[in-house]
Amino acid sequence: MLYRGMDRAALDAAYNNSLHVGMARRDAYVNGWAERGAALRRARPGQLDLRYGPGARERLDFYPCGKAGAPTLGYIHGGYWQMNDKEPYAFLAEGVHAAGFHLAPIEYTLAPDARMDQICAEIRRAAAWLIDHVAELGGDPQRVYVSGHSAGGHLTAIALGDRRLAGGLAISGIYELEPIRLGYLNDKLGLDAAESARNSPIRQLPEAAPPLVVTVGRGELPELVRQSAEFAQAWTAKGLPGRYLPIEGHNHFSILEELARPDGKLVAALKELERSRA
């Protein structure tokens, strides 16, 4: 057995979100996000491809909500650190703007072109760049939040090492990389045991951090639900501010609607993070 009583086949299935949801449904979600993202970019032009580092994919977009000095949500896309781009996730402005936040989707170098150490370093650099430059874009540097989904949930936890951030919203993330190292996803990531350990947020809890909401759909793969629950428990057990927010009725892809809908539960959680600063 490789991990928690699972052999390689069982472990691979335990982290295969597309297989769990079904490729047709997964593609419908992803294609829908791309269409909605394109429509939003046409309707609400932003500042695009702002460079936060030297790499070709070290760039972010900024979609203002129309209010000077508003808080900003930096959003980190998923794709198991190997896939996707920032552009489709402009659709999240449907909910984020309604909450009074600017939206800044973040891109980063993908595996196998980058190892996990580099990916995490890029996300730290992106968060720092946003804090340092958001006033020039119309935001408040004291109110920069980060969020991300799947691999982006993992990278949200990584970003919260910057205590200047106002808070984080980690969605359906991976907080212990060891099962990733042992499964099919490592074919491109190339993790070794040491790199897995030093980039696993549950093993590298900070001494202090801004508040973090850890959320997951109750209809997701059991391993993802377990990872979220255990990370949230470890976070709060260390005395770090935050809470666990499992959401009924959602799979790994549909949960993003809770951040895209103005009345979504994740929009509400984001607004609560902002209110708690007062």
Description:
The chain has 278 residues and is an alpha/beta fold. The protein has a single domain, classed as Alpha/Beta hydrolase fold, catalytic domain (Rossmann fold, 3-Layer(aba) Sandwich), CATH 3.40.50. The protein has 12 helices and 8 strands. The chain has helices at 8-14, 17-21, 23-43, 93-96, 116-137, 151-159, 178-181, 186-189, 193-198, 222-237, 257-260, 265-276; strands spanning 47-51, 59-62, 70-76, 102-106, 139-149, 167-171, 212-217, 242-247. A 6-stranded parallel β-sheet has the order 4-3-5-6-7-8, with helices on both faces. A two-stranded antiparallel ribbon has the order 1-2. A hairpin with a 7-residue loop joins β1 and β2. The longest helix has 22 residues, at 116-137. It is globular, with a radius of gyration of 17 Å.
Could you give a quick summary of the protein structure above?
The protein has 278 residues and is α/β, with parallel strands linked by helices.
